[in-house]
Structures are given as C-alpha cells and as structure tokens.
UniProtKB/TrEMBL annotation:
It catalyses: ATP + protein L-histidine = ADP + protein N-phospho-L-histidine. Keywords: ATP-binding, Kinase, Membrane, Nucleotide-binding, Phosphoprotein, Transferase, Transmembrane, Transmembrane helix, Two-component regulatory system. It comes from the Bacteria. Gene3D superfamilies: Histidine kinase-like ATPase, C-terminal domain. Its EC number is 2.7.13.3. The keyword Oxidoreductase does not apply. Residues 189-393 form the Histidine kinase domain. InterPro entries: HATPase_C_sf, HATPase_dom, His_kinase_dom, Sig_transdc_His_kin-like_C. The chain crosses the membrane at residues 12-34, 151-171. This is histidine kinase. The keyword Metal-binding does not apply. It holds the Pfam family HATPase_c. GO terms for molecular function: ATP binding.
C-alpha cells in the first residue's frame, strides 16, 4: 500500500522542476543580455581605437577636437589602458585607482600593469598602427555594470533558493502542526468513544465477579486483564496531545511486563527473550502506558513480518550516563533499503488491511513525548530487522 504522503513527493518534484526551468530561463535570458552588452562595449572600444588611429593622421585640429570630445570622451564605463608596442603604459581611462597609491606614480604603474594582465584574460588587445610602422595597444575589460550583470542571475537564484527554503520549512511546520491537531483530535475522540462502553464493561465485570457461580473461574481473571487493558488503551489515547508525566521507572521490569502481556495474546510460535547488560535496577524516564504502546506496536509489526513464526529478542544497552537503548530484533522478512526511511510515515504498510499508523504513532510517542529517538538500526532482507529506542535516564 502506497502512503498518501508519498504523493507530496511528486508535488515537491514538480515544484523543483518548475524552479529549475525558471532558473534556467533566467540565466539564459541574462546571458543573452550580457552577450549583447559585451558586443556593444567591444564596439565602443574599437571605436575608441579608431578614434586614436584617426587622431594620429588627422588633417586638421578641428577634427582632432571633434574626435576627442565626441568619440574618445564618450567612453565613460569601459576600463581602457593604452600602451606602446612594448606595453609601456601611455594612458588609462575608467580605472579606479586605490586611494592609498593615488599619489605614488610607481605604485600606480604597477597597479595598471596588473590590470593589463586581467584584461588579457578577458579580451585580446586592439592594435592601433602608427604611420612610422610602430603600433599601440588598447587593452580593455568588462565594465562594472557588465560584470555585475554576469553574476546577477546566480545571486538571484541564491535569493530565490533561500526564500524557497524558508517557505518549505514554514510549510512543513504548518503541515506538521496540522497533522498534530488531526492526531490529537482523533485520539481524544477515540478515548471519548471508548469511555462509555468501558464503564459498562467494568460494571458487568464487577457484577460477574461478585456472583458465586463464577468464583475461581479462570476466564474471569482473563476478562479482568482485558478490561484493565482497555483502561490502559483509553488512557493512552487521552495522553495524546497533552504532556505525559515521565517518571523514573525500572526499564527492565517495565519492558518485561509489556512482553509478558503480549506473549499470551499472539502466536505461540513466536519466542520472546529480554536481555540486559547492566544492573536490573537501572531506571529511565518513561510514561509506562505510552512506552508499553510503543513496545506493543513494534512487536506486533515484527510478528506480522515473521508471519507468526520466529523469535523476537529485546536487548537493553546503556549509552553513556544519560541514555538507554532498547533494541528490538526480529527474524522477519527485513526492510529493503529503499523503504527504510518510509516505515515511519503515516499510511505506509505492507499489509492488505493495515492502516500504517502503528510505527508512525510509536515514533511520535518516543520522539515527541519522551524526547528520545526511534529508528531502524539494522535491517537485511530475508534476515530480520532491529528497531532501536533511545530513552533518557
């Protein structure tokens, strides 16, 4: 059975694809603009070079003034350096000289030489021939505007990604809050619905117990256990949504009690064992009613995975001074690696008639109400699975 929540992964995938398309379109369009602006700047520098070439052989002073004012001075954005054939600097334009060297000619020349090396990496210099056969070189690089425009789409994508990430977390938080409200409402309503028939059952149990005909009747004792069990279940549902009381409990004893109750109500072909490597009086902070529920859900899932035949080993391990691990290992079918992350999702189940809520509820109880952890420690297809519960001491 595929959980409903898996459909949301498809929605996320669609959103990611749309975001990638928008990003690719933004980068493509910006690159087109950058290419056009780069061509325009290159034409401007070529015009600057032609103006210089014309000034060398200008027939009159009027033309030189025109070239100087209308062509050479029109370039106010593209950094340009004019050199002789030996790359000795003759002039520069639109170069931002650092203030700390503005009054030091040697430092300025050294700085401009460094700028020439950067310009060589971007563009080939433009050759300006002289009448005597010598040449000048015009070195240039992208304007500040063009450089900023090249990086603009990537900055834009980073901003959009950050916004999308924040929106995702906000959406996830609101979704979890909504799910919590649904869980709490369902649990409270279930506890309310169980209350009335449970009260009636308790009254009938006390009535039958007082009847001499049923004195020393074994079935009466089992009936009493089931009635008390219903009380515990009602209490569990009532605790969902409210802060449960955590007490220092003997974790070995509590675990053994939960297993003893289960053993009489599942297949006798399933063997249980509880082991511990520490002193039997070690305690952990748990709510017994909810902890029993977790053990019950995990073990029932294990019994289903083993098809009612196999063994379940529970091992209690100390994890330093502050926590205890409860490892529940079965000899069932195991979980494929591709599904390990999905087993705790509400609605995920491999059973035809399952609701897929047992492990989801167990994880919520441990993670949210006990401030612990529940996860798949180990699993191998055909060999079994180990669930680990981490509790605080």
């Amino acid at each position: 059975m595929i959980p409903i929540y898996s459909q949301k992964n498809r929605i996320k995938l669609v959103v990611v694809i749309i975001a990638l398309i928008i990003g690719a379109a933004t980068i493509t369009y910006t690159n087109i603009l950058v290419s056009k602006l780069s061509e325009r700047e290159q034409e401007l520098v070529q015009l600057y070079a032609k103006g210089l070439r014309y000034m060398i052989n200008a027939p009159s002073d009027d033309n030189i003034v025109f070239i100087e004012e209308e062509i050479l001075s029109s370039n106010t954005t593209v950094p340009v350096i004019l050199t002789d054939e030996n790359e000795n600097i003759l002039d520069s334009k639109n170069i931002n000289i650092p203030e700390n060297i503005s009054d030091k000619p040697d430092k300025i020349n050294e700085y401009l030489q460094g700028e020439i090396e950067k310009m060589k990496e971007q563009h080939e210099p433009i050759v300006v021939p002289w009448a005597e056969g010598s040449v000048n070189y015009v070195f240039y690089k992208d304007s500040e505007l063009l450089s900023q425009l090249r990086y603009y789409p990537y900055v834009q994508l980073i901003v959009i990604s950050c916004f999308a990430l924040v929106a995702y977390f906000v959406f996830s938080y609101s979704r979890r809050a909504e799910q919590n409200r649904v869980w709490v409402g369902l649990a409270k309503e279930t506890a309310h619905q169980l209350g009335t028939p449970l009260s009636s059952l308790m009254a009938w149990y006390e009535y039958i117990k007082a009847n001499p005909k049923f004195e020393n009747e074994p079935i009466l004792e089992e009936l009493g256990k089931d009635v008390r069990r219903l009380e515990i279940i009602t209490e569990r549902f009532s605790n969902i949504g409210s802060v449960p009381a955590l007490r220092d409990e003997n974790i070995l004893q509590v675990t053994e009690n939960a297993i003893n109750y289960l053993q009489n109500r599942i297949s006798r072909k399933v063997a249980f064992s509880v082991e511990t490597a520490f002193a039997p009086d070690i305690t952990a902070k748990v709510n017994v009613s909810l902890y029993d529920w977790v053990i019950e859900n995990i073990c029932k899932n294990a019994v289903d995975a083993m098809e009612g035949r196999g063994s379940i080993n529970i091992q209690l391990v100390l994890l330093g001074k502050s926590s205890i691990a409860v490892d529940i290992t079965d000899t069932g079918k195991g979980i494929p690696k591709s599904k390990v992350d999905s087993v705790f999702l509400p609605g995920f189940t491999t059973k035809r008639r399952g609701w897929g809520l047992g492990l989801a509820l167990a994880k919520r109880i441990i993670d949210n109400y006990h401030d612990g952890r529940l996860y798949v420690k180990w699993s191998e297809v055909g060999k079994g699975t180990t669930f680990r519960i981490v509790l605080n001491r």
